[in-house]
Amino acid sequence: MSALHTPVLAWYDTAARELPWRSDGATPWGVMVSEFMLQQTPVKRVLPVYEEWLRRWPTPQALAGEPAGEAVRAWGRLGYPRRALRLHAAATAITEQYGGAVPSDHARLLALPGVGEYTAAAVASFAFRQRHAVLDTNVRRVFARAVTGQEYPANATTAAERRTATALLPDDAETAATWAVAVMELGALVCTARSPECGRCPIARACAWRQAGSPPWEGPARRGQSYEGTDRQVRGKLLAVLREAPEAVTQAQLDAVWADGVQRARALDGLVTDGLVEPVAPGVYRLPR
């Protein structure tokens, strides 16, 4: 393990990005907000929204005190806006159940609305410096290459990956918390999906994938998610109209943003089903309250 721990921790000490959720002044709430926003969204897109969010809602109570629709509005174009609703629901639960303090206990974090296995471990580790295996896409890719000798991990997290991540955790909680974010940073900056920079990787000599000759992926084809012309794009356009309007909007205003009436209706129905849009009268819609 020292063949991995020592070089990765040393690399992180000098190469880590300065990000607001890693600063000495970051609160557990700030860490939680960052983890919700960073799911499937790059750091450069998250930063301006994150900073404005915490200026407006520096505590869970502040967010819980406003309608859920305001969270959707402030989410802007980060994508996957249901995360905004889930974060609002988590803030409400934290306010009602824990007096506005993000719980440090992993099981209590996991019980919060919208908090899954990864987010609970990440908040417990990064905000409270606890010893947990934190498995995001970047970490899974580093372990797939360095430990198992495969270019990519499986599509879904496996029990074997969890065992590997747990076995690699340093015994000391503080070191384990740093290790968790260091491996994540390594995957984000060096051991990237498409163009890994093995020449500047601190564990290149110990990497099982490199030792095997960097064999290409032989599993199912890995295809990027399309966006143009999809229901996701239509949903985004409809939500943009609602976010920019101070009051409810009419069906005619929504119809103007997408020509395909069938697809537009399907996307709008999905937004209503997901709780992101509320019908207030026939042909009139608003963000949730």
User: What is the strand tally?
Assistant: 3
> Helicity, in percent?
55-70%
Q: In oligomeric terms, what are we looking at?
A: single chain
**First-to-last CA distance:** 51 Å
Report on the biggest sheet.
Answer: 3 strands, antiparallel
* Structure classification: mainly alpha
Mean pLDDT: 95
Report Rg. Answer: 21 Å
Descriptive overview:
The protein has 289 residues and is mainly alpha-helical. Helices cover 55% and strands 3% of the residues. It has 15 helices and three strands. A hairpin with a 2-residue loop joins β2 (278-281) and β3 (284-286). The mean pLDDT is 95.
Labels describing this entry:
289 residues; 3-stranded antiparallel β-sheet; 3 strands
Task: Outline the fold blueprint.
Layout: H1 2-15, H2 28-38, H3 43-56, H4 60-64, H5 68-75, H6 82-98, H7 106-110, H8 117-128, H9 137-148, H10 159-167, H11 173-189, H12 208-211, H13 231-244, E1 249-250, H14 251-255, H15 261-273, E2 278-281, E3 284-286
Antiparallel strand pairs: 1-3, 2-3
Write a brief caption for the model.
Helices cover 55% and strands 3% of the residues. It is mainly alpha-helical and 289 residues long. A hairpin with a 2-residue loop joins β2 and β3.
